[in-house]
Automatic annotation (TrEMBL):
EC number: 4.2.3.2
InterPro entries the record matches: Aminotrans_3, Aminotrans_3_PPA_site, PyrdxlP-dep_Trfase, PyrdxlP-dep_Trfase_major, PyrdxlP-dep_Trfase_small
Record flagged with keyword Secreted: no
Species of the source: Synaphobranchus kaupii
Subunit structure: Homotetramer.
EC supergroup of this enzyme: lyase
Protein's recorded name: Ethanolamine-phosphate phospho-lyase
Length: 655
């Protein structure tokens, strides 16, 4: 390498750390100027084309580098020869190679190949550093003309075991109650980017239901923020660190002023469990009011307030301190869209519970509700419902807990938090959040008032969480907030969500199987029914739809008490093109189903949900699918927001 001029190819950039390859068109020479070094030809000047490389998972113990596009011929780095081989090449060998040509490989932790000394010394940050397992890329961006396009590249994937072996080991070592999606033919996912997931064969799946990867799978800014902080420090919150206070401040700025005190934990279940402790300590009461079909987490204190779960326990009696109010579902619930004031009617149900409990000598500590009921079937409370419930509960000495674990952080588009859909005159006493907060990194938070926080402290018991609020988690949380703002993901959720909802409404006018469409932002549900008048749940048909979509590399889920609601809650980078693709496929599948069942001969009734056939309801976020003893329904859904379950050929699976 001695004698080579520093700065060769200074404009070529391969941004390993951001998982994006940037190509820079080079102006100037028709061909490089040739000089001679040590009796060999050497080209001093930049070539007129550009370099593109892609880093991808390779062998079990290493990472391979593949050539996307280049003017260098095989002598450039073939067989791992790298820059050493380039010295002897002639201009005639400088030609464009086909996408995917291998140009070398390195073990994880080794220096980047295909780099020159000046780059390794850090003059081009995007080309310095070591290989990591996170160095994956599928995008190519051209700078200068603003063009952004995708390279459809199917790289080799790093696998420790083949799929059969993975299934075998999972059955052997993982608890049998931990279900997988599509148990008859589960998917092995090895990487993901944006709104796409990839299996071990490089097949790409459009992810329509993963609300955990909120700003997109493997977002480079989020990955980089976590990696950089991990290199410096990760410790508990008993030490002072700016990331903690900066994130708390940024998070609070998205909430009403009275919600000003944060407790950082690691999961939505931890957050809701802590919220109950805050309510118990503040009020001195014990009883909790929850909604039918609600789901709030998997720990013992939350199973008892989650009818979605405890109804599965069969002979187990409901906890006497837990009271279940009707779900405020105006399509399938007790008070429907034809009721003159469903918000008051449903809130009066809560008032009646409070009065009956008081007569029995019991006192309510809290009312807890998902701001948009998720597993209950994409239910949005009617406007004014939360205000009226809060008034009743607070008058009885309780507090209002809003569970934003699945629906927060701008998913509804018009607001940052789903509870804000109820209006500016409503503020919960406690808000819990999780899933999207870390874009896949395990973190969550409880935010409450200063008064409730002071009461919690007065118990004399310190609250400490080993990993809650650690510097890495807070760095990741800050990056997520930055991406939401910088990429206008709330605006995208509103635009694409409205477009998706309108497409589904058009399908409702065509297909008698679609009974209702409801949505807010990128939180959309389509409820399938066999009879619109009777609203008979089309459970088997919903399962057929999600399985047919899976066969076409689209991941969707079905949930609700009858497992008949198609749930859309994709990463926030979901596009209108993605929405159109999914709805077109659903159209094809429903057409075939209706023809097979004879439903296509029925006349589709006029739209019943207002002028456009849309009800002002939003939908839920998938997060939990339980299994009923069959391998179909996925308990795994609950933790990763997943897809549906196994095929239900003729009847509903009991959960």
């Amino acid at each position: 390498m001695a004698g080579r001029r520093p700065g060769f190819l200074p404009t070529a950039r391969a941004q390993w750390l951001t998982q994006e390859v940037v190509r820079v068109p080079l102006a100037g020479h028709a061909r490089p100027e040739k000089t001679w070094r040590d009796g060999r030809p050497f080209y001093e000047r930049d070539p007129p084309q550009r370099l593109l490389f892609v880093v991808d998972g390779g062998r079990k113990d290493g990472t391979s580098v593949e050539l996307l596009e280049t003017v260098f011929g095989r002598s450039f780095g073939c067989c791992g020869r790298g820059w050493g081989a380039r010295r002897a090449c002639s201009w005639n060998s400088f030609r464009r190679e086909r996408i995917g040509d291998a140009v070398g490989s390195q073990k994880v932790g080794s220096n980047l190949p295909l780099t020159r000394g000046p780059w390794r010394r850090g003059k081009a940050k995007s080309l310095t550093g070591l290989f990591t397992d996170a160095l994956l890329t599928t995008q190519v961006r051209t700078v200068g003309d603003g063009e952004l396009r995708e390279k459809q590249h199917r790289p080799r994937m790093a696998e420790t075991y083949d799929k059969v072996k993975t299934i075998e080991l999972r059955r052997k070592h993982v608890g049998p109650s931990c279900k997988v999606f599509f148990s008859q033919d589960p998917i092995k996912i090895v990487r993901a980017k944006g709104q796409y997931m990839y299996d071990e064969n490089g097949e790409r799946y459009l992810d329509c239901i993963n609300n955990v990867a909120h700003v997109g799978h493997s977002h480079p800014d989020v990955v980089s923020a976590g990696a950089k902080q991990m290199e410096l420090l990760n410790t508990n919150s008993r030490f002072l660190h700016d990331n903690l206070v900066e994130y708390a401040q940024r998070l609070q700025a998205t909430l009403p002023d009275t919600l000003s005190v944060c407790y950082f934990v690691n999961s939505g279940s931890e957050a809701n469990d802590l919220a109950l402790r805050l309510a118990w300590q503040y009020t001195g009461h014990k009883d909790i009011i929850t909604l039918d079909h609600a789901y709030h987490g998997h720990v013992s204190s939350l199973i008892s307030i989650s009818p979605y779960k405890f109804h599965q326990l069969g002979t187990c009696e409901q906890d006497q301190s837990v009271h279940v109010a009707p779900s405020p579902d105006v399509y399938r619930g007790k008070y429907r869209e034809d009721h003159s004031d469903p918000a008051t009617a449903y809130s009066d149900e809560v008032r009646d519970i409070l009065q009956k409990s008081h007569k029995k000598g019991r006192k309510i500590a809290a009312f807890i509700a998902e701001s948009l009921q998720s597993c209950g079937g994409q239910v949005i409370p009617p406007p004014g419902y939360f205000q009226k419930v809060a008034e009743h509960v607070r008058r009885a000495g309780g507090v209002f807990i809003a569970d934003e674990v699945q629906v927060g952080f701008g998913r509804v588009g018009s607001h940052f938090w789903a509870f804000q859909l109820q209006g500016e005159d409503f503020t919960p006493d406690i808000v819990t959040m999780g899933k999207p907060i870390g874009n896949g990194h395990p973190m969550s938070c409880v935010v409450t008032t200063r008064e409730i926080a002071e009461a919690f402290m007065s118990s004399g018991m310190e609250y400490f969480n080993t990993f809650g609020g650690n510097p890495v988690s807070c760095a990741i949380g800050l990056a997520v907030l930055d991406v939401i703002e910088r990429e206008d993901l709330r605006g995208n959720a509103l635009r694409v969500g409205n477009y998706l909802t309108q497409l589904l409404i058009e399908q409702k006018e065509k297909h008698p199987l679609i009974g209702d469409v409801r949505g807010a932002g990128l939180f959309v549900g389509a409820e399938l029914v066999r009879d619109r008048d009777k609203r008979t749940p089309a459970t088997a048909e919903a399962q057929e739809v999600i399985y047919k979509l899976k066969d076409q590399r689209i991941l969707l889920s079905a949930d609700g008490p009858h497992r008949n609601v198609l749930k859309f809650k994709p990463p926030m980078c979901f596009s209108e093109e993605d929405a159109r693709l999914v709805v077109d496929k659903i159209d094809e599948i429903l057409t075939a189903l209706e023809k097979a069942t004879g439903l296509h001969t029925q006349t589709v009734p006029a739209a019943e949900n207002g002028p456009a056939g849309k009800r002002a309801m939003t939908c839920e976020e998938n997060g939990h699918h339980h299994s009923s003893g069959k391998d179909h329904l996925n308990e795994l859904c609950r933790q990763e927001e997943a897809q549906c379950c196994d095929r239900v050929p003729t009847k509903r699976l009991r959960t």
